[in-house]
Amino acid sequence: MTGFGSAEGSVLGGRLSIEIRSVNHRYFNPQLKLPFELAGTESQLRERLRRLLERGHVTLSARWSEPPATESAVTVDLARARQVLAAARELKKQLKLKGEVDLAFVARHPDVLALERDGAAAEWSEVEPIVERAAQQLVAMRAREGATLATELGGRLDALAEGARAVERRAPERLAAELARLKKAVGELAAGVPVDEARLAVEVALLADRVDITEELVRLRSHLAACREALAGDGAVGKQLGFLAQELLREVNTIGSKANDAVIAQTVIAMKGELEKFREQLENLE
User: How much is the pTM?
Assistant: First the structure.
């Protein structure tokens, strides 16, 4: 699910701003963008995000809205400066160039002059309250989206349940039609020859067993109930619902293969369409 949260607070005498964003992802994938003063808190940040979110691509960005009150000093690398000066003079000599190598030229060269900070590092106890405030905003936003998704998914489950009821209503008519077709076929093949009624009764019983979809309907309703129970819970349910969606599809496919009936086949096609939409929405759910 998508989400966003931000907060700001005092750290190391400066003002630190933290933003946390999350977008859909199959697994938990954190990415941290931190100033060097927060490098020592990276492991705590990752662990906090991992406990907070089970799925999603999560980006945490921290920046200074007001730099920390740290002391710094300018250092000179004399050896580097001498190398730069010597190289410039050799270049002038070899290429017969005009001009003088001056202080400005040497000072502009990287690493000749460097700014060194005092090495102050932020403590997790300073950073944690800011992270928590941003995280709670993120969680609240994801919760609102989750509630909307749960309503949408519940509608898909209602459609599947109605499809199951339609199949159940049609099943006796379909079985009667199959039995009538079998008797007609046997009569035509027998061409007036007496038919062994006991043998015909056995074939009818076998046919009824082959096309019976009672067990599939029972399991389908059980899976639908499990889906509703999961949606009513408080924890992460994306993976659980993904598994249940696979089981629902298995039962719907079996019903379709056993049905041998145009009306039920059309209902099964509609149910598979609802299941596909259900599974697509699961990609957005934690």
Answer: 0.61
